[in-house]
Write a structure and sequence with these properties.
The chain is of the alpha/beta class. It is 35% helix and 25% strand. It has a domain of 172 residues: 3-Layer(aba) Sandwich (Carbamate kinase). Strands 3-6-2-1-9-11-12-10 form an 8-stranded mixed β-sheet, with helices on both faces. The protein binds adenosine-5'-diphosphate (ADP), aspartic acid and magnesium ion.
């Protein structure tokens, strides 16, 4: 059967000319079998990180519009090279940027949202028999300014295109064989999952599992787009991300995540009276900072500490804003701690089982790991711990919740 397939290849799958040729062979193979292909690509290897570093050498606070202009060049290189590699194999291909496709976004530079996709151009090229190569991670505002969709945003481009084109399949090709019970680079005993629900994948992605961008899963869930995450280096089938899986409530914990990319901010000796938290968090909200875990104790001495976490790239600005708020309250001390990480367990089974948190805390205690902060959602529990214990914590929890390979 002739299918319309959207495939996305990540940066590591395109890191050098040999790998680009490998992707071209793969794509050509599908075309040879009669399928129509729309291929979304990321920037080669670590290009996006390198461009960010380059910008930092020029400006400490570059305008976000110009950042988008810069970062979008990474994906433009990829589309052209992949199209050339496919031509070499004797197949017709055409490369398109986000704006050429008509991926229209809002104006929130560096984290823009897709408003609509005008797919006419893609349909025309497919009709001509072309393989269409689309630059991931980028779009254009109605005023024709280039935007990007947040880190890992090529996943979102692929899912949104699969939805718009009503594709038969949406495949995300990466450098591991699918979604694992935890990052296989941290725990070799991690197991590949045959399938995982949107809810669990969204939670894992939000809590640090890099393999899929969280927003792409939100969109997939909203429109019911099944995603197949698999390796660009093998033909094995990978992990299906879908609405429901069999016996989903029987499994207590599906996955474990680690996030080393947060900072903890503490305001010391805060007077215990109404309105203080509101003042401080209003300042942060106005600065557009996403505050995550918050811990405040009721105090017996009329004074208490408030701690919260923010994404590391926002930490310096968050401290500045917090100090401003703290000065208005009194000369309160504000501390920043980058030496932390967040380890989380995720599973829909938690909704219907008790004792999961106790088991997590006990496991960390056995490893003599102190828990600095705790937060929970319906399907996850997170602990902030000292960074040096990150890997030990992941491995201990992975074993304790029965996730090790061969178990
Ligand atoms: P790409 O360049 O293909 O977009 P990413 O680096 O964004 O790839 O994502 C793939 C990486 O995600 C893997 O190399 C792996 O180290 C990491 N990862 C973290 N958690 C998981 C997990 N639970 N399952 C699979 N990979 C994970
Ligand atoms: N190149 C972008 C990034 O590194 C987008 C992506 O890879 O999905 O974040
Ligand atoms: Mg990625």
């Amino acid at each position: 059967m002739r299918k319309l397939i959207v495939q996305k290849y990540g940066g590591s799958s395109l890191a050098n000319p040999e790998r680009i040729k490998n992707v071209a062979r793969r794509v050509a193979g599908y075309r040879k079998n009669g399928h129509e292909l729309v291929v979304v690509v990321s920037a080669l290897g670590d290009t996006t990180d390198e461009l960010i570093e380059l910008a930092a050498k020029i400006s400490r606070n570059p305008p976000e519009r110009e950042m988008d202009m810069l970062l979008s060049t990474g994906e433009q290189i990829s589309v052209a090279l992949l199209a050339m590699a496919i031509h070499e194999l004797g197949y017709g291909a055409i490369s398109l940027t986000g704006s050429q496709v008509g991926i229209i976004t809002d104006t929130a530079h560096t984290k823009a949202r897709i408003v609509k996709i005008e797919a006419d151009k893609i349909h025309q090229e497919l009709k001509r028999g072309k393989i269409v190569i689309v630059a991931g991670f980028q779009g254009m505002t109605p005023q024709a300014d280039i935007t990007t969709l947040g880190r890992g945003g090529s996943d979102l481009t692929a899912v949104a295109l699969a939805q718009t084109l009503r594709a038969d399949e949406c495949e995300i090709y990466t450098d591991v064989e699918g979604v694992y019970t935890t990052d296989p680079r941290v725990e070799q005993k991690a197991r590949k999952l045959g399938e995982i629900t949107y809810d669990e994948m969204l939670e894992m992605a939000s809590l640090g599992a890099q393999v899929m961008q969280a927003r792409s899963i939100e969109v997939a869930k909203k429109f019911d787009v099944p995603i197949h995450v698999r390796s660009s280096f093998s033909d094995k089938s990978g992990t299906m991300i879908i609405r429901e899986v069999k016996n989903m409530e029987d499994v207590l914990v599906t996955g474990i995540t680690l996030n080393k990319n947060e900072s903890k901010i503490t305001i010391c000796n805060v007077p215990d009276r109404p309105g203080i938290a509101a003042k401080i968090f209003n300042q942060l909200a106005e600065g557009g900072i996403n505050v995550d875990m918050i811990v405040q104790n009721v105090s017996h001495t009329r004074q208490t500490d408030i701690s919260f976490t923010v994404p590391k790239p926002d930490a310096a600005r968050a401290v500045k804003l917090t100090r401003k708020g703290a000065r208005e309250i009194g000369e309160l001390e504000v501390l920043q701690d980058d030496d932390i990480s967040r380890v989380s367990i995720v599973g829909v089974g938690m909704k219907t089982h008790s004792g999961v948190a106790a088991k997590m805390f006990e496991t960390l205690a056995k490893e003599k790991i102190n828990i600095e902060m705790i937060s929970t959602s319906e399907i996850s529990i997170s602990c902030i711990i000292k960074k040096k214990f990150s890997e030990t914590a992941v491995r201990a929890l992975h074993a304790q919740f029965g996730l090790d390979k061969g178990k």
